[in-house]
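Hi P.,

Sorry for the delay on this. The queue was packed all week, but I finally got your sequence through. Input first:
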Amino acid sequence: MLRVHMRLPPLLLSLALCALPVRAAEDFLPGVTRIVFLGDSITYSGQYVDTFEAFLFTQFPKRGFEVVDCGLPSETVSGLSEIGHAGGKFPRPDLHERLDRVLAKMKPQLIFACYGMNDGIYKPYDDLRALRYQEGLRKLREKARAAGAEVIHLTPPVFDPVPISGRVAPAGQESASAPYEGYDEVLTRYSAWLLEQRAAGWRVIDLHTPMQAAIRAGRERDPGFTFARDGVHADAAGHALIAATLLAALDPSRAEKFRATSIAPDLLALIRRRGRLLADAWLKDTGHLRPGTAERALPLAEAQTQAAGLEGQIRDRIAAP
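Then the structure:
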């Protein structure tokens, strides 16, 4: 049996619980059924979204939630791209090139948006780049609100230079091809700005701080501990922490219950298969400028038919004794 662990060390749990006000179980995402996740390759890879869906299927089997992972690799919300990105093959895609189509076709009621990792384009902090990031998030909120969707922001995950120490550029030696060694300082500042927007009524869940704390704790035991062997893309443990933090912020009591739930490998595989099917079909249907992504996806109607069959299998599997 695969066990999806949601237990966090006390410090990390306390950080997660601070992210949003505690809600009664019956008030979980009231009035929401259609949920879309937007973000870059970390979101597109989808493991934390799979866990989120497993939570919904098992804890709210009658709510009829519709969840689609619509993350896009390489994407920014700032519209920025470094020179020579992807070996010069294509610039980073900009969320705002596709956002109107996503909102019009998918009609989400709630959007989880996780941006920042690519938005500083792996260079030292720069006020103009930070402003572009902030403006991009504001524009996302304005368009989502006009379309009837609420946005919950996720601070960016951690950039970890330790596992790629031979391939980073120290301060003062910036390179077009190597990420800045202290890039996580940029993401920390982006995260701090996002958290400050809570005072203006933004709903923000902090992923960055718990991940930093977990890495520090892990390195006390093992100096080589990391969530991202390439410095950027979280592994299974990193995605588990992202999911745990997200769920603890949304519904602490149910998240605590869910952490002890055994999820059979075949059930999680069904959830992931369904999620990938819909993710790629929607990416292809709504369109994007990222070459090589979802090019072989099924037509949306066919994917939705297959997804409905998989959902039936998922529900049957959950209901089985």
